[in-house]
Amino acid sequence: MTRVRRVRRAVAIALGLGALMGCTVPSAGRTGVSVSESGRPIAVFVLCHDHIDGATLSIDGEGTEEPRSIAHWEPDEPVTGIAAWALDALDGAEPHGSPRRPKRNKSVTYHVHGWTNDDSWATTGVDFTRAQLAELKPGQIRYWTGDREGTDKYGHRTGTLEQFRTAACG
């Protein structure tokens, strides 16, 4: 291999690794889903430090398509501490920025997570279906832990706000 080819290959590898390492946004907290006293679906955010500028609700591409965003939340002020966002797009409201409404199929998987405008921070997202939301009682929050013990097969747990905050911030 010539010296020029070795240098090109080393540069390509370095650029590729840099791109891969730059893809991950550090977590400032977690996202969960719950239901209000009236049964309205809500996203719950616990920020352990820093802030988020908004959140996105996506629908799974169902194996053949990429996941697509169906709603966005951009509050007037950055979110710190604990906050909630009513997931009206799940109740049949026209989703912001989406030409199609989400299917009412109970097995469709949704995902919600928080983000910052400059990609400096995010909240760990949560996946859920309508059927999983229907199982929640007010005060219960479904959230992702990544653990295997005490969770469903995908690493999600259901607990109280205090359990959610402890899982998020230790």
What do these coordinates show?
The chain has 170 residues and is α+β, with helices and mostly antiparallel strands. Helices cover 20% and strands 31% of the residues. It has one domain (26-169): Immunoglobulin-like (Sandwich), CATH 2.60.40.10. It has helices at 3-21, 130-135, 161-169, and strands at 27-35, 41-47, 54-59, 68-73, 82-86, 110-115, 122-124, 126-128, 141-144, 156-159. It is globular. Mean pLDDT is 79; it is low at 3-22 and 93-103.
What's the helix and strand layout?
Layout: H1 3-21, E1 27-35, E2 41-47, E3 54-59, E4 68-73, E5 82-86, E6 110-115, E7 122-124, E8 126-128, H2 130-135, E9 141-144, E10 156-159, H3 161-169
Parallel strand pairs: 1-7
Antiparallel strand pairs: 1-2, 1-9, 2-5, 3-4, 3-6, 6-8, 9-10
